[in-house]
């Protein structure tokens, strides 16, 4: 059963390549002056293991398992996923400029699958964002960070200062919406990664949280 699910997932990813996406417009927000030059996503900045229950939905295909994210150094994280039955699915090391595949289950060893996971986790684990413009609405302070053809809108809750959303765009097209639920800056209790151009959704739910100050 698991092998059939993985094969179906691969076929769905191949089908997704021709789907388009919409332009992104920031609404209900006004430009403001800000002293912030750089903002950060600190949710994966600790040296402790981040352990999550992972659910991936790709069109009508559902894959679940356990995901572990480990910070190896200031630039690199290790990401490993096992099935609900404890079988290793994929294990890789990733930074903003490098990618090393340690293991992948043969059924998932397809270039399109690897590229999706590499790109998604590279954006998720990106830490520092130079601020190009600042905005705010009733609930959030919003920072726009531009890099070549990419742009990131980071939404920080005004009340607790926690990062709630990152909207990733490329060529002004909305690509991925990262939504976080958290009680502190260095650990996201849950994460929802929603592609806007493909019917791909990755959800992470906290399993264990190490004690942090």
Key words describing this protein structure:
213 residues, 2 helices, mainly beta
Question: Helix and strand layout, with pairings?
Answer:
Layout: H1 2-15, E1 30-31, E2 38-40, E3 50-58, E4 61-71, E5 77-83, E6 88-94, E7 99-104, H2 111-125, E8 128-130, E9 133-136, E10 140-147, E11 150-157, E12 163-170, E13 173-184, E14 187-195, E15 200-208
Antiparallel strand pairs: 1-9, 2-8, 3-4, 3-15, 4-5, 5-6, 6-7, 9-10, 10-11, 11-12, 12-13, 13-14, 14-15
Give the termini separation: 43 Å
Radius of gyration: 17 Å
Share in β-strands: over 45%
Spans of at least 5 consecutive residues with low confidence: 13-20
Shape: globular
Number of helices: 2
Please count the beta strands (DSSP E, at least 2 residues each). 15
Strand order, largest beta sheet: 1-9-10-11-12-13-14-15-3-4-5-6-7
How is the biggest beta sheet arranged? 13 strands, antiparallel
Helix content: 10-25%
Description:
- This protein is mainly beta.
- Helix content is about 15%, strand content about 50%.
- A 13-stranded antiparallel β-sheet has the order 1-9-10-11-12-13-14-15-3-4-5-6-7.
- The N and C termini lie far apart (about 45 Å).
In short:
The protein has about 210 residues and is mainly β. About 15% of the residues lie in helices and about 50% in strands. A hairpin with a 2-residue loop joins strand 10 (about 140-145) and strand 11 (about 150-155).
